[in-house]
Amino acid sequence: MRKFSKLNIGSAGIPLSTPNKNTLNGIKHVKTLGLDSMELEFVRNINVSKELAPQVKKESEKNDIILSCHGQYYINLNSKEKEKKEASVKRILSAARRAYESGAFSMTFHGAYYMKENPEKVHKVVKDALISITKTLKDEGVEIWVRPETTGKVSQYGSLIELLKLSQEIGMVMPTIDFAHLHARENGKLNNYDEFCKILQTIEKFLGREGLDNMHIHFAGINYSKKGELNHLNLKDSDLNYKDMAAAWQEYKIKGVAICESPNIEKDALLVKKEYNSQKKMFEQDSITPEFDKSQKAKGKYSRYKIGGGKRTKP
To answer: Which of 21, 25, 96, 297 gives a 20 to 30 Å CA spacing to 154?
Structure first.
């Protein structure tokens, strides 16, 4: 599996400003924009053919662009209808296979709905399905992270703790951390520096440093109600505190990919990358100058990060 040296910020799908929009040109344009990654959007269908996949992989390697993948929306591993559950499994498998052939390191999806059932029971249903899915992929030699995503609605399976437990229990499974979804799911909470740090602390507690060095992140502006997510917004049209989010990322020195899902896609990706890089300069000063560190603490800003020791288990 891929190892990362930094956090690679990029776009959910082909950037809107791409000339002659297609996947290959999208990868090239991500590079031109100064971004680091792109997510293949299989959300409605697998739009990269088997014949095109090797070209996509080659183009991403040529341009040093990290690829991830978002699987189909139409997935519910807790469906009571056998046909729908089987179709959900097939969609996850087909997206994972094509993403792997295209050079993606990770495939994410929304796992299930509670369907008014006990969350612990739903967790077991999802766990059993993913054990079978990952075994199939492993047997086929498909080396890709299978990542259920933290979900934005309270009716959906996919809280932070649920997915961290799942990741402890199954090899090849790690979470996709969607900061906008977590913010919406908690009805406006999880939106300041300390709360963002707490999310990262919790990830490390469950998964160890691997959980922070191998991240698949989503972010966007978001509109929400008491029931959770309504729709995505551009960051400047929303209340998501992206500056504190970027500061927490720097504090914890996370690695992997961070994909922007705002409607304006690359504009907010570039906005967050600029903020992230400016925070990096601050933290570099912090580590070099004790006086700077002291002044920041006096202002109640950033705490110094100390690596903890979570552990990850596999079946």
So the answer is: 96
Q: pTM for this one?
A: 0.91
* Contact indicator for 5, 255 with CB cutoff of 8 Å: yes
Q: Is 90 left (phi over 0), alpha (psi -120 to 50) or beta?
A: alpha
d(CA 236, CA 260): 13
Burial of 275 (0-12, 13-18, 19+ CB in 10 A): buried
Name beta bridge partners: 28: none
Helix runs in 157-289, H state only: 160-169, 179-185, 193-207, 210-213, 242-252, 266-288
Which amino acid is it at 23?
A: T
Secondary structure class of 178 (helix, strand, coil): strand
pLDDT digits 0-9 by tens, 64-97: 999 999 999 999 999 999 999 999 999 999 999 9
Tokens of 63: 């341009």
The rounded Cα 63 to chain-centroid distance in angstroms is 22
Q: At 97, which amino acid appears?
A: R
Q: How far is it, in rounded angstroms, from Cα 222 to Cα 9?
A: 19
Q: Within a 10 A sphere around the Cβ of 240, how many other Cβ atoms? A: 24
pLDDT tens digits for range 175-234: 999 999 999 999 999 999 999 999 999 999 999 999 999 999 999 999 999 999 999 999
Fold of 7-298: TIM Barrel (3.20.20)
The first and second tokens of residue 283, run together, are 């933290």
How far apart, in Å, do the first and last CA atoms of the chain sit? 18
Residue 109: burial class (beta carbons within 10 Å; 0-12, 13-18, 19+): buried
The radius of gyration of the chain from alpha carbons, rounded to an integer in Å, stands at 19
- Rounded alpha-carbon distances, angstroms, from residue 27 to 10, 57, 144, 202, 310: 10, 10, 20, 33, 36
User: What are the CA-CA distances from residue 163 to residues 149, 173, 228, 305 (Å)?
Assistant: 8, 9, 18, 24
